[in-house]
Every structure is written in structure tokens, then in C-alpha cells.
Design a protein that fits this description.
The structure holds two protein chains of two kinds. By secondary structure, chain A is an alpha/beta fold. Chain A contains eleven helices and 15 strands. In chain A, the strands form three sheets. In chain A, strands 7-8-9-4-10-11 form a six-stranded mixed sheet, sandwiched between helices. The N terminus and C terminus of chain A are likely disordered. Classes of the chains: A alpha/beta, B mainly alpha.
């Protein structure tokens, strides 16, 4: 199989300068992306950031106004048919026929993926087994729970065992249990070598599943890296103190030095903790010495939430002239 | 297999999906088939007694009108199915598969024509049961059925276009209600001559009226005593109207489908 190569690396997904405009608004505004084979790449961003538009262009559903993209070695604009033979798409809604059974849905999509009737039936059976739907395969999808629907939807995206899988917000609207089910299924796929492009609004989901993450803001990635690398961009670990009496807040802030940030609502003061445990010990000692009562003292690693807020806040608004 | 055979095979898979719906949910199919029969009984036995006809039995007038009206009622099935698939993302899944893109439309078209044939068969049988008869032999009857299906075929394109264009559930509901006045503003149930002037003119030129009047002629059923130009040229108009509708809405549908990628 052919894959695009760049600087000696093999990339399964490569996008260069994708632009998609709707009137004055640019849904994609110079969108670049490279995803190495066999990895999970997360596109993280709020609603309207351009994640879904990017997925729709890469899966040939949407034509870009400018830029180019290759998926599994094929150009999405010129070789749409070949791209579609190598991808699976699981969109935001469970795109299933509610009146048909799970099995009938998979058989139909199998036939439309040009499997012979027997092969389509066999594949439907395999996928139902693999996603724990064998018992309910004959039930109409409208009787399925949210998590079951998503798993069936995922199965429908895997009929041709595609080397590249696009998951557009695969757990939106699911309860924690349904979410865990989908995550487990995605992890199993990656273990088999599938390349996955995942869009999500949930930082936890990107943290859990993605090898690398692009934070998307106003139609293009504003940062890219592993979850750990991204967390480092907002600074290292911090020490956090929750005081018992709000009147002590200024004293604690003074004690922690110039990097301290105070949140009056939560009675919390935080500051960088470059030396981790040494800093923590010093802080606890100083609090005791100062006679300040604390409800909680802890060392905390920054979350992707903070990375996300930091990046989307600092990215300057761009003009779309 | 080459491109064309795949296009046919894919279209058939999409059509078969509808047939599977029938077996999975026979209640819905039966309700859909019995609905025109209910309207028929309503007019034949409850309201028909009050409608003046120029000689002959009211049912002889009513049945061809009901056949034509059923073609219009079918419009709702087409646009609801298309719009549901688009909003649920099923259309996008189809478009992400290596299938022939024409199959989404051709499969739907074949499925709806199949449903129409079934509905027409049920209604013809019901007509015979309530005393309606075809008087011009099998040839005339087949020609009449052909005209009815020709109208339904044209309305398919209108339904596909509406389904692709109209996404929000309120608009779909409004459209479902709007089908009724369009169906009744015709010569299907009563003579346009009994309607207030300008309404009568609209009813006279309603494509549904042309098909109903031409169908009455072909079945050998009596027509309304109506000497307008449209009524006098019903047969020509019943061929021309669907052609005009198709010529407008088939290209619009193709464009709307292509625009899904814009």
C-alpha cells in the first residue's frame, strides 16, 4: 500500500493549507496536519473550531476551497473513490437505520462497500461479536441504548477493516459507561495498527486516547504535541493551598512569592512548584510557622483544560479580509 | 463488475432496505396502505352523498380522483425519508462508502415506485369492492395506471429536492400539512365548477386534476361536466405536467445532492 512520505517519515494523513469558507466565515483557515501511521491523533477544540469540517474534507464529504490533503496515499480531491475504499467514518450522530436490526445495518453497509452477500454476512457476524452485540444483533436499532448504538456505529465504520479511521466526537451525548465502552473499542483498534483521527470536545478523551493532540482554534491548529508536551506549555506543576479563613489569603499569597495566583471564591492560592516535594514541604512548614489553618495542600499537574483555555485565549483573533 | 452493474447493484441494496422496513415493521406498511382506503371510504359513504354528480354514480368519479390523490400523498414519504437520512447522517455514511453515488437517489426512487404500485393495487381492489369499474378493458386500465405512475415519478424528484433542502422538523411538518390543500384543490373529489371563480381556475390547472381527468377518460368513467380548456385537454396535460415537473426538479435534485459537498 502507498503512503505519503515526508522527511523519511510515513504519514497516513497529510493536510496542507486547507481552506473552507462559508461566506465571510472561514471554517478552515490554513489547516495543516500530519498523522503518522498507526497512531491516534486528537483534534481538540470547541464547537465551531473547524474540527468537523476538517474531517469532512479528509473523508471526501466536503470539497476544500484551497489546499490539499492525502489520506492513505490518495489525494482526497482527485482520488475520492480510492480514499473511500481505505477509510472508515464514524460521525457525530449514530448514522444507522433505526428500523433495521444491527445485523441488517452492517450487512447493508457491507453490500454498499461492495462485499459479496456471503462476505457481508460473515463480516457483520464478526463485528457484532467483537463489539459485544451478538445477542442483540437481531433487534431493531431503535431499541438499542446510546452506548450500543455507538458501538454499532463504530462497527459500521470498520466493515472494510480500513487502515484509517475517522471518529468525529464519538462519545458526545454518551453517559460515562457508554464512553468507557467506546474508548475500550478504540484502544483495541489501535492495538491492531489502525490510524485514527479523533475529534473531541472532551479533554479527558484526548488525554486518554490520543498519542498526539492538535488544539484547533478558528479553523487551524494553534498547538500540537503529546498530551504531556502540551501540559508543559502552561508551565510545570503547581502547589495549591485552600485556606480555612479567607482573611488568610493575602498572607498565603505573600508567602508563596510573586508567581502566586489567588482565587477568592474557592479560597485557593496556587503557585509554581518547580521542586515539587521540596516546595511542598517548605510550604507546609511556612503555613504551620505562620499559624495559618489550611483545608487542603496539594501538588497538582496542569490539566489539558488549562492548556486549552491558555491556548485559545492567547491566540489572537484573526481578521478574515 | 463494472461501474454500471455496481450502480445497479448498489441501487438495489438501497431499495431492498425499504423492503426490509416492510417486513421489520408491517404495521407501518399496512397503515400507509390503508390510509387512502380510509379516505376513499370517507368520501364514498359519508360525504359523497352530498356531492352532486352529472348522472352516474359518485364512486365512478371518486376513484380516479383518489388514485391521483394517492400519487400526491406519496410525496410525503419521499421527502420524509430523504430528509431523515440527511439529518441522521445516514446520507453522509453512504457518501463515505465506495458505493455508486447515484444509488442513493436511484434506490430511493425504485423503493418509492414499488410502494406506490402496492398502494395503487390496494386502492384498485378497494375501488372494485365498493362498486367502481373500469369500462375500457385492460389496455385502457393499463394506460391509466401508467399515467398515474408517470405523475408519481415526477413527484419523486420534487420529493427528493424538498428532502435535501428542508431539514428542520417544523418545516417538514408544515409541508406534510400543505400536501392536503394541494390535493383537495383539484377535481379529485368535487368539480372545480362548484368552487369560487379563481379557486376553480387553480383547481382546473392543478396537475393532479389533469391526471385525474385523463384517468377517468382511460378507465371509461364519467368526467365532470366542465368545458374549460384545461379540462378539454386533460390527456395532453397529464403527459405534459409530469414532464415539466421532472424537467424542473430532477436537475434541482442533482444539484442539491452535489451541493452536499459544498
Amino acid at each position: 500500500m502507498l503512503y505519503g512520505t515526508l522527511y523519511g517519515m510515513t504519514y497516513t494523513i497529510e493536510a496542507r493549507g486547507l481552506v473552507k469558507r462559508y461566506g465571510d466565515r472561514a471554517a478552515l483557515d490554513g489547516f495543516d496536519l500530519t498523522v503518522p501511521r498507526g497512531t491516534v491523533h486528537g483534534l481538540l477544540g470547541p464547537n465551531g473550531a473547524g474540527k468537523t469540517t476538517a474531517v469532512r474534507v479528509l473523508t471526501t464529504l466536503l470539497r476544500a476551497d484551497a489546499g490539499s490533503a492525502r489520506v492513505a496515499g490518495f489525494d482526497v480531491a482527485r482520488d475520492g473513490g480510492e480514499v473511500r475504499r481505505h477509510i472508515g467514518l464514524v460521525g457525530q450522530h449514530a448514522a444507522l437505520d433505526e428500523a433495521l436490526s444491527g445485523r441488517a445495518n452492517l450487512e447493508m453497509f457491507g453490500r454498499l462497500s461492495h462485499l459479496r452477500p456471503k462476505a457481508a454476512g460473515r463480516r457483520a457476524g464478526e463485528l457484532l461479536d467483537r463489539f459485544g452485540l451478538a445477542d442483540t444483533g437481531r433487534k431493531a436499532v431503535k431499541h438499542y441504548s446510546g452506548g450500543m448504538r455507538r458501538r454499532l456505529d463504530l462497527a459500521a465504520g470498520l466493515i472494510l477493516s480500513p487502515p484509517v479511521l475517522f471518529l468525529d466526537e464519538p462519545t458526545t451525548g454518551l453517559d460515562p459507561r457508554g464512553r468507557a465502552e467506546v474508548w475500550a473499542a478504540v484502544r483495541a483498534l489501535v492495538a491492531d495498527g489502525t490510524t485514527v483521527l479523533l475529534t473531541t470536545q472532551y479533554l479527558e478523551e484526548a488525554d486518554q486516547l490520543a498519542h498526539r493532540i492538535s488544539v484547533v482554534h478558528e479553523g487551524r491548529p494553534v498547538a500540537e504535541g503529546t498530551p504531556e508536551e502540551l501540559k508543559k506549555t502552561v508551565g510545570g506543576d503547581r502547589v495549591e493551598i485552600v485556606v480555612h479563613d479567607p482573611a488568610d489569603l493575602p498572607a498565603v499569597a505573600a508567602l508563596l512569592g510573586p508567581g502566586a495566583e489567588t482565587d477568592h471564591d474557592t479560597r485557593r492560592v496556587s503557585a509554581p512548584a518547580p521542586d515539587r516535594m521540596a516546595t511542598l514541604t517548605a510550604v507546609v512548614h511556612d503555613l504551620a510557622a505562620g499559624g495559618i489553618a489550611a483545608d487542603d495542600v496539594a501538588i497538582r499537574r496542569p490539566t489539558l483544560d488549562e492548556v486549552f483555555l491558555h491556548l485559545t485565549r492567547s491566540a489572537a483573533p484573526r481578521s478574515h479580509a | 463488475m463494472n461501474r454500471l452493474t455496481w450502480a445497479l447493484a448498489d441501487g438495489w441494496t438501497v431499495t431492498r432496505r425499504e423492503v426490509t422496513h416492510w417486513t421489520a415493521n408491517p404495521g407501518q406498511l399496512v397503515a400507509g396502505l390503508l390510509f387512502p382506503v380510509m379516505v376513499l371510504l370517507l368520501f364514498a359513504y359519508l360525504l359523497g352523498g352530498g356531492i352532486e354528480v352529472p348522472g352516474g354514480d359518485y364512486r365512478e368519479f371518486l376513484l380516479p380522483g383518489m388514485f391521483a390523490m394517492t400519487m400526491i400523498f406519496g410525496l410525503e414519504g419521499t421527502f420524509t425519508a430523504i430528509s431523515t437520512d440527511v439529518t441522521k447522517g445516514v446520507t453522509d455514511r453512504f457518501r463515505s462508502l465506495p458505493m455508486a453515488s447515484s444509488a442513493v437517489v436511484s434506490g430511493r426512487a425504485a423503493a418509492d415506485m414499488l410502494t406506490t404500485v402496492l398502494a395503487l393495487a390496494v386502492l384498485l381492489a378497494s375501488g372494485l369492492a365498493v362498486g367502481w369499474r373500469a369500462h375500457n378493458g385492460l389496455g385502457g386500465a393499463l394506460a391509466a395506471v401508467g399515467l398515474l405512475l408517470w405523475l408519481r415519478f415526477a413527484l419523486l424528484w420534487m420529493g427528493i429536492w424538498l428532502g435535501l433542502k428542508i431539514r428542520n422538523p417544523e418545516a417538514v411538518m408544515a409541508l406534510q400539512i400543505l400536501v392536503w390543500p394541494i390535493a383537495f384543490l383539484s377535481n379529485a373529489i368535487t368539480s372545480p365548477a362548484t368552487m369560487p371563480g379563481w379557486l376553480g381556475v387553480i383547481a382546473d390547472w392543478n396537475p393532479l386534476s389533469s391526471t385525474a381527468a385523463a384517468t377517468r377518460e382511460l378507465f371509461g368513467n364519467p368526467g365532470w361536466a366542465n368545458d374549460t380548456w384545461a379540462a378539454a385537454h386533460a390527456l395532453e396535460l397529464s403527459l405534459a405536467w409530469p414532464l415539466v415537473i421532472t424537467a424542473i426538479f430532477a436537475p434541482l435534485s442533482v444539484r442539491a445532492y452535489r451541493n452536499l459537498s459544498r
